[in-house]
Design goal:
five-stranded antiparallel beta sheet, Neuraminidase, globular, mainly beta, 473 residues
Length: 473
Amino acid sequence: MAAGAISSAALPAAAGDGIAKQAAKGDLRPAKLSVQVRQNGQTATVTKTMPFISSGTINAAQSVLGSTSVQDEKDIAADNTSTTDIGASASLGSGPGSLGCAQRDGKNEHGNVRVNQDCTFRRQAEENITYNPADPNNLLAGQNDSRVGFNQCGIDWSTDNGKHWGDLLPPFRQKLNNPAGEEPTAADPNRHTIQGGPGTIHTYDAGSDPALAFDSQGRAFFSCVGFDLASNASLLYVTASPAGANGSFFFNLSSFSRRYVVAEDNSAEIFHDKNWIAADRNPNSPNRDNVYVTWTVFKFSPSCGPQPNPTVEERYCSSPIFGSMSTDHARHWSTPEEISGTSDTLCFFGDFFDPTRSPHACNFDQGSNPTTLPNGDLEVIFNNGNTAATNPNGQQLGVHCHPTGNSAAGSAHLNCVEPSKVGNDVIVGEPQCNFGRGPEECIPGAYIRTNDFPRISINTQNNHLYATWQDYR
């Protein structure tokens, strides 16, 4: 194996552009790691694309910019010039199968029920769903929701096993970016920021990456990332709906909230992305009703990458997986911890972009997914790109964690061990499409963006774990 060479597709960005805006404009693109390897007496170049901000977040940022490269944004733009009435015969309003909007599944509905109650044709994407173990007829769903302009995270709930649904948008609109206010205090010893420093004292433009869970008592939890286009404001929160509310409302984040805030920053070097949550609903678990969130922290700096570097753009440093936990129903969150770890046998090039890191850091990550175990432990899997020079593909890794402590007291920790390998992620030859932000993984023909982030679940009968993901083997 010979020395590698960086190949970054990033272009100089306009002064003041936030990370999300740079990515949406295509000014900031995934870094590439190229290494020369010798096999069978011949030298070959292997180029690996580093993890990048999730396409859902970038898509949401593009909508803020008014991009017309995506068809549904063209449709929304057409609202401004349309002079056509819908007509009395159109089936767009309230109907017997929903709270506010008619079904969209054809004349006979084919047995499907409308979930979101937005009567427009605006984008709903990245859907997921769960149920309440205290009342299995109570369902909770989430999706990206573009009904009110900039993309938000929509919430849907049903109390009759999916026959009828209500919905709402998340309660963070008045939250002001203020990382300095997320430093430890006597009342809350946790640090809810990675970088710290002054904030914009402005609200957030948009949100993305909805995630949800129920605990054993029927409390619902909803998580989302928020970001700004005119600044580097970046937020991760997890809010709660009390038992008995059935997910029909969630607690608000106040303007200068610490409660329900996991992490908040305003730095060109930090971006929070692709969160997922899990609640311990195991009735005999010592950590029953704890809530966990894992996510990717993208780190950028002009000093990362082989020197010399231009100072007019941010360079990819790493994207490790972080985790946090709450022992009091999402009111207080523990100080964020990097949990993706190091491995001498699984992870390489950890210091390639950032020489301060271990060469065996597993820090080219994205798309984490946690699940709880009956004994109170936590398993987190994620997509990783720190494979050996001779391996052009990626891998799925997992870390086993032993949560302890009290989040309100500042003593909570995840205590994750060294990662183990879940499986190979075959990416060589994967189809790519250009959605206006450079080539990315997709389903061709249908022209649908996709990813190979893993999901994990447990067989409650024997406690075996199962992971699934898509790739191109």
